[in-house]
Amino acid sequence: MKVQTIRKQTFDSPPKISIIVPIKDRCGARIRNCLRGIRLQSYKGIEIIIVDYGSTKENHEQLLKDSEPFDCTFYRYPTQNIWSPAVAKNIGIRRAQGEYIATLDADCIMEPKVIEWTLKLHGEHKDGFVETKMCFLLQAVEVDALNLPRDFGKLRENYSLRKYGFGAYLSVHRSWWFSVRGCDERFQGWGGNDDDIRDRVKRSEFRRNVLSERVKPETMIFHQWHPSSRSEFTKKYGKSYKEMYDINVSIINRDKTSVRNRDNDNWGVFC
Predict the structure, then answer these.
(1) Per the omega criterion (within 30 degrees of 0), is the bond before 149 cis?
(2) 131 φ, ψ (degrees, to nearest 5)
């Protein structure tokens, strides 16, 4: 299968930053909230890249409608393969125009100064990466009824922090992404890929910069509540899901290299 270019943003000069949002069979209020959060950023001129990895025809068409009000670049990879956020991100990375490339989960809502502070931190520490600890919104927050920017205050009052939660947002200079050949495409399903990328960028001895409301105002990123993806995958794939999970864990535990996809010059489905 070839990657389809559905629509592309135009820029007078290359954008400073590209944000890649990988997605499969997700549409409706959650993706609209995600895109609205990006569009409300104090820093303008962001390249927004949506990568639709194997959504059904119905969900793909709905996603097109949901994203229509937002100026964004849209790629589609029509595949029957099991969901791979690693491949989806790589599709965006290979095509991104930004000096810095960030990845963002489709369930996330950015506060207005995330990108402004991300670029300030990159400017201070070029050999650095920027991430944040996720704020998980409580189920009581009705994502279908959110009105942004008015409801940012409501989000700040209705979230929880967990031991895990890094990975849903990561920004690094494009040269690093290409030097390590993107995300490891052996990863399938949610889980593992985010931890692997964080480990690899740390092994590159890049400086870690963590956005925090306590330090940088209006830089929180909220994860919209939804039923567990793990239960969804278990129901859909059964025993094979556990096998996928075990493979992901094995890669993290055993592979301590930084460069991946060594035998795959087509990483990111470059065709």
Answers:
(1) yes
(2) -145, 180
pLDDT tens digits for range 12-32: 999 999 999 999 998 999 999
What is the domain extent for residue 197? 4-254
Position 266 in a domain: no
pLDDT of residue 238: 72
92 token code pair: 């965006």
Compute CA distances 63 → 79, 130, 205, 244, 269, whole Å. 16, 28, 38, 27, 21
For the entire predicted model, the pTM comes to: 0.94
Tell me whether residue 236 is in a domain.
yes
134: domain CATH number is 3.90.550.10
Note whether residue 260 is domain-resident. no
Residues in the chain, pLDDT under 70: 214-215, 228-233, 236-237, 271
